[in-house]
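Reopening this one. Same input as before:
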Amino acid sequence: MLKASIDLGTNTCLLLVAEVDPVTKQVTRIVHDQSTMVRLGQGVDQTKRLHPDAVTRTRACIKGYASKLITLGLKPSATVCVTTATARDAENGAEFFKEVERETGFKFRTLSGDEEAEFMFAGGLLPGMNAETSAVIDIGGGSTEFRSAREGMSLQVGSVRFNERFLKSDPVTDAEFWAARAATEELLRSAKKWRETLPSGATLVGVAGTAVALAQWHLGLPMFDSRAIDGTELTRGDLHRMVEELKWRTVAERRIVPGIEPGRADVLLAGALILWRALECLDFPKVVVSTRGLRFGVLALGDLN
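Same output, byte for byte:
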């Protein structure tokens, strides 16, 4: 059964087209997997509204996805479409999505933080991973989700949100960096009770843009390669070194570093800082990176529209 899903986040818009086994609900073959940087969350943390430029970029991306699905013989109206933190925060989000549905047929559902964590966990584990001994972290542009087989939580700390809130200089100043670190650690304290519910030696799996981007940089890959990235391990030490290098580089300097996607260069420090401090504060020695995630979870678990 060929199905499609769209995951529209604060920073990226992802389209997945795959064959799904109707009995096991598992993705059996990926037909098309595309990620586009739209930065829908531009300015939302300050204004609580979607920026006109962000709306224009996102509409263009979504229209392109509709055309792609039609060429594959799929109907946009049958696509499982979800959106997350930015839509929850933006006052004009509902108006935007009504216009998107009118123009393309895509009907988006805004997930709660708990729903986002649940579907992210279901889709993020790599083949062969044990759900009972695994936990997933998803650092998005506006929020960070933690999930295990039993429970999860969502924190309002994300790469775009904290970049705009704290890391305003280029390169960032020490004062900005330490303020961002302190705010991150303060929010992470509330995740310690969740951490205590996990079994000893639980594996932390990192999904979505930040973790994937850091793995791509760590491997020095010139372009995205899911087969190379899936299963990559990043230790606390690896992440600390990355944070320190990103901290002293300007955004322009980051853009030309092999493996760093130019469109993510400005927010990668905030994302790396969040992941590094999550490992330190929650006592994980490493994170295993997965290119899968929310779009796989909502595709496998059914139509949410």
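So the earlier flakiness isn't reproducible anymore. For the record, The longest helix spans residues 52-71.
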